[in-house]
Amino acid sequence: MQELAIYGGEKTRTKPFPSRRDIGLEELKEVAEVIWSGQLNRVGGTKVSNFEKEFAKLYGVEYAVASASGTASIHIALGALNFDPGSEVITGPISDMGSIIPILYQGLIPIFADVDPKTYALDPEDVKRKISERTKAIMAIHLFGLADKLDELKKIAKDYNLYLIEDTSQAHLAEYKGKLAGTIGNIGCFSLQQSKQMTTGDGGMTIFQDKELYERGTLFSDKAWPRSGPSKDRGYLFLAMNYRMTELQGAVGLAQLKKVRNIVERRRKIGEKLNKLIQEEVDGVNPPYIPSYCKHSFWLYPITLDEEKIKVPPEVFNEALNAEGIPSSFGYIKKPLYLYPVLKDKITFGNSHYPFNLPEARKVSYKEGDCPNAESLLKKIITIPINEFYDEVDIEDIIRALKKVSSYYEQKN
Ligand SMILES: Cc1ncc(COP(=O)(O)O)c(C=O)c1O
Questions:
Q1: In 3D, which of 159, 161, 160, 123 has the Cα closest to residue 141?
Q2: Within a domain: residue 62?
Q3: Ligand 1 center to residue 223 CA distance, Å?
Q4: Run of H or E including 344
Q5: Alpha carbon of 228 to ligand 1 centroid (Å)
Q6: CB atoms inside a 10 Å sphere around CB 406
Q7: Distance from the CA of 70 to the center of ligand 1, in angstroms?
Q8: Looking at the 3D structure of the chain, how many domains does it have?
Q9: Which 8-state DSSP code applies to residue 222?
């Protein structure tokens, strides 16, 4: 048996994996045009508005609003929906806190439903259980690049008269039953942060099916200051944010949009190849489960271990992989979102605990055990970063390291 690198054996992989993204001359050319124009703000520029139009076209929807971040893109969705404070949004507990922050800032209460143990999508049955008379929306989070359970969630939304928001930050161009993730619910939100399938460094995009919601979302992203029509006196029509994307980001976004199909195809090929090789060659490791009607877009590559075969804890397995030269991480986030101080201890505005202190709000508390599947998954998932520049050797090295570590820990038991 080969000695593991963690115990002094030879490393499987000595050179770093590609970290560069598909960003280059095309982006430079677009950005140069912005610099030479001297117009860096989107008001009066063309790049951001063109980026919105092209993004909407790529997704086959009518309307898109660009913004400063994925967090902002979700805030714009909620600002457009304009629910009364104390209303509830049901969502998943495995995500970046950027999914939840806008809910709280809008005076809304996040209610967590558990996830499906196989695809990590919101569990429709648990969503149903969590609906109250204050529920106004469901927000699905398409983790790691996979969107699932959307028919079921859409039906629940229809039956209970709720909106369905899709947090598609990690799942650009993922597909569910032939439809693009982000276009199935009422509103789709995207992060364009550096690590995502396409990026503007930081940035966000909110796509809408409905014109009125889009118009309010546009205003919400720009201090409710109508930029055209009769109300040119700044308007300030309601409480809203400045989430405007800059022309520099819009320029990068335009160039990235031309590449994102190809980027996702390359990532999909790499992800699917890893799935195939793990299934064929690596005992004790479960590749991500992809239902036949889904196309994954592989923001990260998540694996779990077969606990019957690999008796060491996943943290140890992950450390061994790291020692082999694979930059994997254990757990994604270390605990479900509701166990972080902002939610568990309701650390929000001063000592108010707003919005949880609102008389209109139902009293909620968050505690361990609320979403057992999510809690158990976070103690199991190991994520392996991949990107469009990984080649055959990179894939081989990941497989060799997985094989080496899994067979070592299988035989040790
Ligand atoms: C699922 C999800 N939602 C929201 C966000 C927030 O996006 P941003 O960091 O661009 O604000 C992220 C960022 O990683 C995310 O992965």
A1: 123
A2: yes
A3: 22
A4: helix 341-344
A5: 31
A6: 24
A7: 5
A8: 1
A9: B
* 406/400 Cα distance (integer angstroms): 10
Ligand 1 atom closest to 202 (CA): 10
Closest residue CA from atom 3 of ligand 1: 99
| Contact 98 CB / ligand 1 (< 6 Å) | yes
Give the CA distances from residue 410 to residues 133, 266, 282, 307, in Å, rounded to whole numbers and listed in that order.
51, 32, 11, 10
Question: Is 91's C-beta closer than 6 angstroms to any atom of ligand 1?
Answer: no
**Is the Cβ atom of 193 under 6 angstroms away from ligand 1?**
yes
Name the residue with the closest Cα to ligand 1, atom 13. Answer: 96
- What 8-state DSSP symbol labels residue 3? P
ω into 313 cis (within 30 of 0): no
Degrees to nearest 5, angle at CA 136 with 132 and 141? 100
- Report the distance separating Cα 138 and Cα 123, nearest Å: 11
Please name the residue that has the structure tokens 């949004």: 89
Residue in 46, 106, 114 with CA at minimum distance from that of residue 71: 106
- For the chain, which ranges sit under pLDDT 70? 230-232, 412-413
Q: Does the Cβ of 166 fall within 6 Å of ligand 1? A: no
Instruction: Report which of 28, 78, 303, 73 is spatially closest to residue 193, judged by C-alpha positions.
Output: 73
pLDDT of residue 231: 56
The verdict on the CB of residue 119 being under 6 Å from ligand 1 is: no
Q: Supply the range of the domain harboring residue 162.
A: 25-257
Neighbouring CB atoms inside 10 A of 212's CB total: 9
CATH code for the domain of 66: 3.40.640.10
- 398 within domain boundaries: no
- CB 78 less than 6 A from any atom of ligand 1: no
Residue 313, domain member (yes or no): no
Q: Please provide the DSSP assignment of 266-325 as one string.
A: HHHHHHHHHHHHHHHH-TTEEPPP--TTEE---SEEEEEE-TTT--S-HHHHHHHHHHTT
Supply angle C-alpha 102, 107, 112, rounded to 5: 65
Q: Is the CB of 22 within 6 Å of ligand 1?
A: no
Q: Would you say the CB of residue 373 lies under 6 angstroms from ligand 1?
A: no
Query: Is residue 322 domain-resident?
Result: no
- Contact between residue 116 and residue 148 where contact means Cβ atoms under 8 Å apart: yes
Atom number in ligand 1 closest to CA 98: 6
- Pairwise CA distance, residues 219 & 216, whole Å: 5
Taking the C-alpha atoms of residue 289 and residue 274, their distance in angstroms, rounded to an integer, is 12
